[in-house]
Amino acid sequence: MTISRVCTIGLSLVAACGPGTAAMTDGPATGTATTDSATGDVPTSTAVPTSTAADTTMATMPGSSSASSGPPDPTLPSTTTASTEATTDATDPVSGTASTGTASTGTASTGAEACPEDTVVCIDDALQVCDGNGGFKDPPDGNQCAFGCADASECTTCAQGLADKDCPAGLPRVMLLLDASSAMLAPPAPTPWDQVRDSLAGAPSMFDVILDNNKIVAHQALIGLTVFGDDGAGSKQVVQYGACHKENLAWALDPASSCEAPGCVDPHGLPPIKWTFKDGSMQDPPGFAETTISHMPKCDFSAQKPMQCIGSKRFLHLGLDLAQDNLAAYKVGCKQSKPACTAQTQFFNIVIIVGKYDSTDAQVQPPLQAMFTAGVTTHVIGFGGAIDPGQLEKLADWGSGNQLNARQAADQDQLEMHLAQILDTLDLC
User: Fold this and answer.
1) Whole-prediction pTM
2) Tell me: the pLDDT tens digits for 143-185?
3) 145/232 same-domain check
4) 417: phi > 0 → left, psi -120 to 50 → alpha, else beta; which?
5) Are residues 379 and 295 in the same domain?
6) How many domains does the chain have?
7) Range of 47's domain?
8) Which of 18, 179, 295, 366 is deepest in the core (most CB within 10 A)?
9) Is 379 exposed, middle or buried (0-12, 13-18, 19+ CB in 10 A)?
């Protein structure tokens, strides 16, 4: 699966206007659309994941075989919507000389002259780019609006749409806690790291899961990421809770983002690899609005295992301590943020771990129980064949007040199914 750099809401751009839509303008666009940072298109056909014995869910991960009842409805429409009348009254988009023409399905013709090539127009809440021949061509990345467009120079991005969303209880907050031990880079490809990254930020991904209100996760929750590994730079917050962070996660977990010579020449090469962690808000591209720190598991060399990265254990408590400290600080400030949180705002964690943790139970239990007491449930997913079911169950018990079972995913499909089921517990707005 490839990474999508476009954030939309199920209004996919087509090769032309809908039936009877005119795409004339009074002149070339005078502005450019603002770019969005993070969600993928919503497919119009989805399937309900197979539920486990303990779980039944309405959430769907796009891309499977069974059809849903229909495509997601757009949310937060723009304040100005383009007309879809079949006739226009212009022959020259620059001079505005009047005549009458009829737009046919699949074209932007006015009966005389099409709008100039590369003119950006707002059609049915989506930015379109005229091809100069009466039709449209695919827009460049970033020219699609997540929540609609007002005109050729104004585009409501995913982040803007969520900031303005009316949600009295506050949009749910989800913190991912990802295993960043060296075992995540174990061969063969795709490695566990590759598979988790694809599930979190691929196309489709957890951000594209369609919920039972026919909206996608990206437009229903603020999502952050913390990684845990060794006691050095291997445990840190990658990105804070925030809107439309699919592209942030895709960039941050991409080996190429942390590969810089001389320590790294080939991000997919053999060990040793010395990663250089970067802030995606300090360089363009990607030019993120929020601090986003790239991360990769440690990849030292071992003569006993020359093909495998080593160097980082799995100190889960370091990630949990980070999440707990961040939670306390974040709740103080988010009441004044936009979108704001309230006393009723839902918070929960999702731990993804690929083996036994190297922390002690005495280190892991307190932060899990403290966060649950503070109203934050922790869901636990063990991924791959090296997990310890007994450890996982203890984590799930401590993080949920003995209310949840741990989840086990043998492969990427099962990981995505469990993510979809957990995200179906979001408080919908």
Assistant:
1) 0.72
2) 567 777 777 567 778 888 888 888 999 999 999 999 999 999 9
3) no
4) alpha
5) yes
6) 2
7) 1-161
8) 179
9) buried
